TrEMBL record:
It catalyses: Endohydrolysis of (1->4)-beta-D-xylosidic linkages in xylans. It comes from the Bacteria. It is an enzyme of class 3 (hydrolase). It comes from Micromonospora antibiotica. This is Beta-xylanase.
Length: 462
């Protein structure tokens, strides 16, 4: 878990603005004011969300507040890498699916958190490095984003990849050591897997203009200039007893880059300023048309990872705190007509912008195996997802051959081993996906530079 000193670092960023927040007036709600956080936010085209632990969904005090006040949820832990892929290639979606079902049943949108993060990596990934880890990372992004395709409003594709302190650079981690392009590779894989989800970079101690947030800013500007698919930046906003005076200006400079901004994990240390700081954060979001919404990191004080900080909007008995009124008033006082599209929790899954599968012979039902490819392409690159289907005899193993056009190279492969990276490349099963029963399917994928348009995979069973 992140050390408390990170929070203290946030506190040290405070400037004179902290003095002004105490003077901010709560505006009287208008006649049409929302009487809950979700109604007030929705009236202004925003969402108001909470981090949820599935273990608490059977606690009625908790669920009553959750359903009444929030129209967006995020899994506090259930969609993280250790939860969703506890063993390599074996995926577990029970907790994440439960969050999604709860959202769908209660008119909420879902933020996905988090596809790649150096913390809460499963044990098997912690011991990996180099190209094996890169493949595993990209496979994880692809599989998880595909599983939840059409159900997630915004994914935290990469979480907390920048270092604290004054360097403005990346944090060291085994993910970072696979190469500086790991973040853009992850965003491209996520876009290919779920073209309808907004793709966010999410971090803490980026809640004002400082070296770390400027490092993130420079990355986002670079991504936008090169067409790397990034749509949003998440500002966690785990705050101490003060708030940086340039909190809103910082949001605005990111919004000016052409990305949506979201407050993703808001909680504030208890004390005299708590209600004012919650209000300031809410007003700052409302003042930025591209600020899509706010998520608080838990429901009641005793649900919070911050323990005795009492950092949330409801006390442990479920009573509204002064901070609640401060947020509600700020939502009701905020301008409407943001440029963001409010998340629609009930949309049907969007059609991915993949090319139609291109099956090869023999068709399922014959002997051997067949393969089909779905491509997601952009200028200069692509992600290919290949479906392998066993024929009537099943397979003990399989090899899929693909002949790539000149100038096209494979840069990463997941759930298969590649014989090379250009020309005719043979992809062979890995240990856990070679044995397929009659008619059974598995998927592997590869990512590359250049174009793979029109490639025709051929499958051979062993
Ligand atoms: O589920 C196990 C349980 O079986 C076991 O007995 C127990 C023993 O320690 O651990 C339980 O797992 C804990 C898990 O929360 C669920 O409660 C982990 O140890 C604990 O590390 C984990 O903490 C989470 C933390 O991320 C992990 O770093 C917090 O709940 C969660 O609020 C926190 O959230 C993060 C965001 O994802 C990213 N930004 C910072 C934020 C706060 O640290």
């Amino acid at each position: 878990m992140r050390p408390k000193r990170a929070l203290l670092a946030t506190a040290t960023l405070a400037v004179a603005g902290a003095l002004t927040v105490g003077m901010t007036l709560a505006m009287a709600p208008s006649a049409s004011a929302g009487t809950t956080l979700r109604a007030a936010a929705a009236e202004k085209g925003r969402y108001f969300g909470a981090a949820v632990a599935t273990g608490k969904l059977s606690t009625s005090t908790y669920t009553t507040i959750l359903n009444r006040e929030f129209n967006s949820i995020v899994a506090e832990n259930e969609m993280k890498w250790d939860a969703t892929e506890p063993q390599q290639g074996r995926f577990s979606y029970t907790g994440g699916d439960r969050i999604v079902s709860h959202a769908q049943a209660n008119g909420m949108s879902v933020r996905g958190h988090a596809l790649l993060w150096h913390q809460q990596e499963p044990g098997w990934a912690q011991g990996m490095s180099g190209s094996a880890l890169r493949s595993a990372m990209i496979n994880h992004v692809t599989q998880v984003a595909t599983h939840f395709r059409g159900k997630i409003y915004a994914w935290d594709v990469v979480n907390e990849a920048f270092a604290d302190g004054g360097s403005g650079g990346r944090r060291d981690s085994n993910l970072q050591r696979t190469g500086n392009d790991w973040i853009e590779a992850a965003f491209r894989a996520a876009r290919a897997a779920d073209p309808g989800a907004k793709l966010c970079y999410n971090d803490y101690n980026t809640d004002g203009v400082n070296a770390k947030s400027t490092g993130v800013y420079n990355m986002v500007r670079d991504f936008k200039s090169r067409g790397v698919p990034i749509d949003c930046v998440g500002f966690q906003s785990h705050l101490g007893t003060t708030i940086p005076g340039d909190y809103q200006a910082n949001l605005k400079r990111f919004a000016d880059l052409g990305v949506e901004v979201q407050i993703t994990e808001l909680d504030v240390m208890t004390g005299g300023n708590q209600a004012n700081i919650f209000g300031t954060v809410t007003r700052s979001c409302m003042a930025i048309p591209q600020c899509a919404g706010i998520t608080v990191w838990g429901v009641r004080d005793c649900d919070s990872w911050r323990g005795s900080d009492n950092a949330l909007l409801f006390d442990c008995n479920g009573n509204k705190k002064p901070a609640y009124d401060s947020v509600l008033n700020a939502l009701n006082a905020g301008p409407g007509n943001p440029t963001t599209t409010p998340p629609n929790p009930t949309t049907t899954p969007p059609n991915p912008t993949t090319t139609p599968p291109n099956p090869t012979t023999p068709p399922p039902g014959g002997a051997g195996c067949s393969a089909s490819v779905s491509l997601n392409s952009w200028t200069g690159g692509f992600v290919a997802t290949v479906k392998v289907t066993a024929g009537s005899s099943g397979t003990r193993g399989w090899t899929v051959s693909v002949t790539l056009p000149g100038g096209t190279s494979v840069t990463g492969t997941w759930s298969a081993t590649a014989s090379g990276n250009s020309g005719t490349v043979r992809f062979t099963n890995v240990d856990y996906n070679g044995a397929l029963g009659a008619g059974q399917s598995t998927e592997f994928g590869f990512q590359g530079t250049g174009s793979a348009a029109g490639v025709t995979p051929t499958c051979t069973a062993s």
